[in-house]
Amino acid sequence: MYLETDALVIKTTKTLNNDLFLTLYSRKAGKIEVVANGAKSSKSQLSACSKPFVYGHFTLNTHNKVTKVISCEIIDSHYRIADQLETLAYGNYFIELCNLATMPNIIDLKHFQLIVEIISLLSNSAKTVGTEQQLDYELLKLAYLIKLSVITGHQANLQYVCTNCASQDQVMYFSVQAGGLICKSCEATQYRGVKLNETYLKLIHYLTLKDVRVIIKTKIHKNYVFHLNQIYEDYILFHNNITEIRSKSFLKSIE
Q1: 41-52 pLDDT, tens per residue?
Q2: If residue 6 lies in a helix (H) or strand (E), which one and from where to where?
Q3: What is the pLDDT of residues 86-108, one digit of tens each?
Q4: 3-state secondary structure string, the chain?
Q5: In this predicted structure, what is the pLDDT of residue 128?
Q6: What is the pTM of this model?
């Protein structure tokens, strides 16, 4: 049986021979593990499409236990991402988090379209590094984290009703563990929380609803972006049982 699908390469794993194991995030099958026979060799027809960030139309043989790549027509290699350390660091972060937060074989067109769009934006931004038109990578990261919380089914409660006790009195703290806003009493006795004002909450709503191409054109104060990035990264890790994002150390090293 054969499957033809558009897919983004989100991970490559070397083997002892010339083969490469690829993790694809695909339109028709969700996250799937495949093998590209002989792809480590530069002479292989599969070599060019077996690199991280490659977006292409893959033909897969699903007949055996291990799905094999038969061919791939590259739509965009996104090679520019590797031209700059900054874009490479953020790119690695995005595809690793996509891999960690995604269950195998679950089709999710919204997530697929989102991660493909983000990688495309990142690739195109590599051409504008050092100019006034440079992409705000931290804002793009925050947009992905917030949208990912919705995609994975862990959208935070942002209503002025305590997530823990349903109280409507002094609901002003955001708790990662509780899954949203909590009251002052619960923050003092049961959960640790971060005090957020209405501006933060409106910003979260905005980033949840708007398309990323609209978001990146919006001017948002860096302090808001910085604090919400810290909160929502912890939020994603906690609610998706992720212990570590390895690419984060690379990202920190270039900041």
Answers
A1: 989 999 999 999
A2: strand 2-14
A3: 999 999 999 999 999 999 999 99
A4: CEEEEEEEEEEEEECCCCCEEEEEEECCCEEEEEEECCCCCCCCCCCCCCCCCCEEEEEEECCCCCEEEEEEEEEECCHHHHHCHHHHHHHHHHHHHHHHCCCECCCCHHHHHHHHHHHHHHHHHHHHCCCCCCCCHHHHHHHHHHHHHHHCCCCCECCCCCCCCCCCCCEEEEECCCCEEEEHHHHHHCCCCEECCHHHHHHHHHHHHCCHHHHCCCCCCHHHHHHHHHHHHHHHHHHCCCCCCCHHHHHHHHC
A5: 65
A6: 0.94
CATH 3.50.70.10 fits 2-76, yes or no: no
How high is the pLDDT of residue 134? 81
- Show me where the domains of the chain are located: 2-76, 83-155+196-254
Under CATH, to which class is 83-155+196-254 assigned?
mainly alpha
What's the CA gap between 135 and 89, in Å, rounded?
A: 14
Same fold, 2-76 and 83-155+196-254: no
Nearest partner of 22 among 43, 97, 55, judged by Cα: 55
Positions of the chain with pLDDT under 70: 127-133
pLDDT at residue 254, as a whole number? 81
